[in-house]
Design a protein that fits this description.
Elements: E1 2-8, H1 13-38, H2 43-54, H3 58-103, H4 108-133, H5 143-147, H6 160-171, E2 174-177, E3 190-194, E4 200-205, E5 214-220, H7 226-235, E6 248-254, E7 257-265
C-alpha cells in the first residue's frame, strides 16, 4: 500500500538555487524527451544521448523517462472518458439550440450557444483524431497559463515579461527522484538517514553539471507519516533484503518555497479473526 507524505523545506538561499537549477534542467530534459518519444525514437538511443547532453546520471534519466511515460499513459487512459463527456455536452448544446431556435430565433443567446457548439465539435474532432492516431498532446506549464499571454491585463499581467516569468516558473518547478529497493536506503539519488533527534536528513545527488556532487538537507520532520518514513528507512538497513523497499521523492516549488513529497510502501498488516463460542 503506497503512501505519500510531504513537508516544507527551510528557505535557504543556496539550497533554493540548487533545487531550482535541478528543476530547470529536469524540465528541459522532460520536454525534450517527450518530443523525441513522440517521434518514435528508440529509448536506449535516447538514454545514451541524454546523459552527456544534459549532464545527468542514468538514474536521473530514468526518473525523467518514468515521469514522461506516466503523463503519456494518463492522457491515453483519460481520453475515452473525455470523449464521452464531450459527447454529452454536444448533445445538451444541440437540445438548447433547438429550443432557442423556436422560442428566440434571433437572440444573442442562440448565437452564443451556436458558437459554443462549434467549439465543442472542433474539440471532439481533435480528440477523435488523436485517439485514432494514438497522438498525445502535453502543454508543459498548463494551457490556461499559456493562453493568458494573449490577454495580459485580463489575467493580471502588466507586461509579457511578467507572464514569461510565471510561465518559466510553472514549467521548471519540480523534479522526481526515483527509488529502488536494491539501492542504498531505497534510493541512491536521494539517500535518507535518521538523526539522533529523530529528524530526517536527505543527501540529494545533483546533476553532473551542478558543480558539486551532493547537497544535504537536514532537520526534516513530517506532520503526517514521519514514523512511517523512519520505519521504511530502518527496513532498508535490515540484513533481510526481502524487507528492503524503494523510497521515491518529488521536490516541488510553490509560492512559499520548496516542498518534498516522500512515497513509501506501508507493510501489509495481517488480519486475524477469532471465532468465539456463545
Amino acid at each position: 500500500m503506497m503512501r505519500t507524505y510531504q513537508t516544507r523545506l527551510a528557505n535557504g538561499e543556496e539550497l533554493g538555487v540548487q533545487l531550482s537549477s535541478y528543476a530547470a534542467l529536469y524540465g528541459k530534459a522532460e520536454r525534450t524527451l517527450f518530443c523525441r518519444l513522440t517521434s518514435c525514437e528508440d529509448i536506449n538511443c535516447l538514454k545514451k544521448d541524454f546523459i552527456p547532453r544534459f549532464a545527468i546520471t542514468a538514474r536521473q534519466f530514468n526518473a525523467v523517462r518514468i515521469g514522461v511515460g506516466g503523463k503519456i499513459s494518463s492522457i491515453k487512459e483519460r481520453r475515452p472518458a473525455l470523449i464521452d463527456e464531450l459527447k454529452k455536452k454536444i448533445e445538451k448544446a444541440k437540445r438548447i439550440i433547438k429550443s432557442l431556435a423556436t422560442k428566440a430565433p434571433g437572440s444573442d443567446k442562440l448565437h452564443q450557444k451556436k458558437r459554443r457548439l462549434a467549439i465543442l465539435e472542433q474539440r471532439m474532432t481533435v480528440l477523435k483524431e488523436d485517439q485514432k492516431n494514438d497522438t498525445v498532446r502535453i502543454c508543459f506549464g498548463s494551457k490556461k497559463l499559456f493562453r493568458s499571454q494573449f490577454a495580459l491585463e485580463d489575467n493580471g499581467y502588466n507586461s509579457h515579461d511578467e507572464w514569461l516569468k510565471d510561465w518559466q516558473a510553472a514549467r521548471n518547478n519540480q523534479f522526481f527522484v526515483i527509488g529502488s529497493k536494491d539501492e542504498t536506503a531505497g534510493c541512491q539519488g536521494c539517500v535518507a538517514t535518521v538523526a539522533e533527534d529523530g529528524s530526517i536528513s536527505l543527501r540529494l545527488r545533483l546533476p553532473n553539471g551542478a558543480g558539486q556532487k551532493h547537497t544535504v538537507i537536514t532537520g526534516l520532520r513530517f506532520a503526517h507519516g514521519h514514523d512511517a518514513i523512519v520505519a521504511a528507512i530502518g527496513r532498508n538497513l535490515s540484513k533481510d533484503k526481502q524487507a528492503w523497499q524503494a523510497i521515491s521523492y518529488r521536490f516541488l516549488k510553490d509560492a512559499k518555497g520548496w516542498r518534498v513529497f516522500v512515497s513509501v510502501t506501508l507493510p501489509e498488516v495481517k488480519r486475524h479473526s477469532e471465532c468465539r463460542r456463545q
